[in-house]
Write a structure and sequence with these properties.
Elements lengths: L9 H12 L5 H8 L3 H15 L10 H13 L2 H29 L13
């Protein structure tokens, strides 16, 4: 007999995904805390990123990649570094605003413009 899987409510899924994107914990820690397999959380995060087109606050890079990146940054000019920092700041601001809109719409406040012709 096959094992019956429970479906996780959308609100709980969104809470788990946003906790990961905020950089609070790893897949494993979130999975253990919420009782959900880490692989499932990876799938949810992947789907959320595709749907919302967001940038994670958590780094998935390895230490050797970090060292190579730091070496390249040392070679970059101050202008390029300032622009990259500004881009990162704007990406975080965009994530925060989208999260705010999602919470408002979950509470019944329509903010995003709906597609279609007015009649």
């Amino acid at each position: 007999m096959r094992k019956k899987y429970q479906r996780t409510p959308k609100e709980k899924r969104d809470e788990i995904v946003l906790a990961y994107l905020r950089g609070e914990n790893t897949y494993q820690k979130l999975g253990k805390y919420y009782g959900v397999p880490p692989e499932t959380i990876m799938v949810w995060v992947s789907r959320y990123r595709k749907r919302k087109n967001v940038v994670s606050l958590q780094t998935d890079s390895k230490p050797s990649e970090d060292m190579a990146r730091k070496k390249k940054e040392a070679e970059k000019s101050a202008d390029v570094l300032a622009l990259e920092a500004r881009i990162r700041e704007l990406e975080l601001q965009n994530l925060a605003l989208n999260t705010l809109i999602d919470v408002a719409e979950k509470n019944g406040i329509e903010i995003r413009k709906k597609s279609g012709a007015k009649q």
